[in-house]
């Protein structure tokens, strides 16, 4: 048996879904009363996000206001032990109520049917079911809006983690994979032969193939230090990286500094709310605080780095999910992998970060195209629910 909480607690297991289960299990949902069916659909979505399959629900009382039809339309079969009309009839037969009350309830049911269109509009605000073209119009951060446009135009949700230590190899990889990606994520400080002259050809490749340069710096320090790391030194990240990553650990000072520092006029930040490595100390409370911080800087924060479907009602933000690989489940250190299909359809991923699955391939371009297609097909499957 499993139980769904209304929200994850900051203590205990800190999970939305409690119980003993494994991915692929089938679950029968049990509910007391159903009116619109929307709360059951929310439960189905949360269970699905954990890899649990749901197709049927048993309810004690169907109020006959359109909930069963709405659930059926969304792929869930409802089985009720009792409906309100029968309940009224039984009560009248036992002398508990009179004919006037029965008619009053019947009239009420006919005049208060669930507005399926209104419920569908509510669903349409969920970022998981909106197209990237639609979300581009909602995004408040200019780089997020540009990313959505690139993703829609190139039909790619692939971010390549180019963790290479040789500058020539980095440029060659960018050229080969460029047509298939929406962003190139770097750790520029690991390039052994780095020279400022590397940036110009890297930017030229990005412009020609229409992808975003993304430095995964994970800023986490006092304001002045971050300012220097971001805009000074040999790397001068603020002059070429349209996107950077940062931790929320030391508070909103990190965003204030990135916002005010010299460099590119248009810039964006991905805040780290969850990690793909085993043994992480990041918990639900930290993730919640990170989201709160992101909401205070909508013009600067492009999205959130996480492993689960968060901020569903904020379609202007992008979920970036690392640790994606077709075959492996983990590496020999601490990285945990998920398949492309799972991160998109179950974990809420908008942009998937793939590294060694491409960089270690015999043909980087072929591997990148393979990931691009799998990820894009999964995205189309996800939004199909809202575009029938």
Characterize this entry briefly:
GO terms for molecular function: orotate phosphoribosyltransferase activity; orotidine-5'-phosphate decarboxylase activity. The protein is an alpha/beta fold. It contains 15 helices and 13 strands.
List the defining traits of the structure above.
single chain; 388 residues; alpha/beta; Rossmann fold; TIM Barrel; eight-stranded parallel β-barrel; three-stranded parallel beta sheet; 15 helices; 18% strand
Your description of this structure?
The chain is α/β, with parallel strands linked by helices and 388 residues long. It folds into 2 domains: 2-124, Rossmann fold (3-Layer(aba) Sandwich), CATH 3.40.50; 127-386, Alpha-Beta Barrel (TIM Barrel), CATH 3.20.20.70. Helix content is 39%, strand content 18%. It has helices spanning 38-49, 67-73, 84-93, 99-111, 116-124, 132-136, 142-154, 167-177, 199-209, 223-231, 253-260, 284-295, 340-345, 356-359, 364-383; strands spanning 2-4, 17-19, 26-34, 53-62, 77-83, 158-161, 183-186, 212-219, 243-247, 268-272, 301-305, 318-321, 351-354. An 8-stranded parallel barrel has the order 6-7-8-9-10-11-12-13, surrounded by 6 helices. Strand 4 (53-62), helix 2 (67-73) and strand 5 (77-83) form a beta-alpha-beta unit. Helix 10 (223-231) packs parallel to helix 11 (253-260). The longest helix has 20 residues, at 364-383. The chain is elongated and about 90 Å long. It starts with a strand and ends in a 5-residue tail after the last helix.
């Amino acid at each position: 048996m499993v139980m769904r909480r209304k929200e994850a607690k900051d203590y205990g297991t800190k999970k939305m879904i409690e119980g003993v289960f494994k991915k692929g299990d089938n679950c029968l949902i049990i509910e007391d009363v159903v009116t619109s069916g929307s709360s059951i659909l929310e439960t189905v979505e949360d269970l699905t996000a954990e890899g649990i399959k749901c197709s049927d629900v048993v309810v004690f009382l169907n109020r006959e206001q359109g909930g069963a039809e709405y659930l059926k339309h969304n792929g869930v079969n409802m089985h009720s032990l009792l409906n309100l009309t029968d309940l009224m009839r039984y009560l009248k037969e036992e002398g508990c109520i009179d004919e006037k009350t029965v008619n009053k309830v019947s009239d009420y049911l006919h005049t208060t049917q669930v507005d399926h269109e209104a419920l569908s509009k509510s669903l349409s605000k969920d970022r998981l079911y909106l197209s990237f073209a639609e979300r581009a119009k909602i995004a408040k951060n200019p780089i997020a809006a540009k990313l959505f446009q690139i993703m829609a135009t190139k039909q790619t949700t692939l971010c390549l983690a180019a963790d290479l230590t040789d500058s020539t190899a980095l440029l060659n990889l960018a050229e080969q994979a460029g047509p298939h990606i929406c962003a190139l994520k770097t750790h520029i400080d690991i390039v052994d032969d780095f020279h400022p002259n590397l940036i110009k050809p890297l930017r030229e490749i990005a412009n020609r193939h229409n992808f975003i340069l993304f430095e995964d710096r994970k800023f986490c320090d006092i304001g002045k230090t971050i300012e220097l790391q971001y805009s000074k030194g040999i790397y001068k990240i603020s002059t070429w990286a349209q996107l950077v990553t940062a931790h929320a650990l030391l508070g909103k000072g990190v965003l204030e500094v990135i916002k005010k520092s010299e460099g590119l006029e248009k810039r964006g930040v991905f805040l780290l709310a969850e990690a793909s490595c085993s043994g992480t100390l990041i918990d639900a409370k930290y993730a919640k605080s990170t989201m709160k911080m992101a909401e205070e800087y909508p013009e600067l924060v492009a999205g959130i780095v996480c492993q689960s479907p968060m901020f569903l009602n904020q379609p202007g933000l992008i979920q970036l999910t690392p640790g994606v690989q077709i075959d492996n489940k983990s590496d020999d250190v601490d990285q945990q992998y998920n398949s492309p299909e799972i991160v998109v359809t179950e974990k809420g991923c908008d942009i998937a970060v793939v590294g060694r699955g491409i960089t270690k391939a015999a043909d980087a371009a072929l591997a990148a195209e393979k990931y691009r297609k799998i990820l894009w097909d999964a995205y189309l499957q996800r939004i199909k629910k809202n575009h029938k």
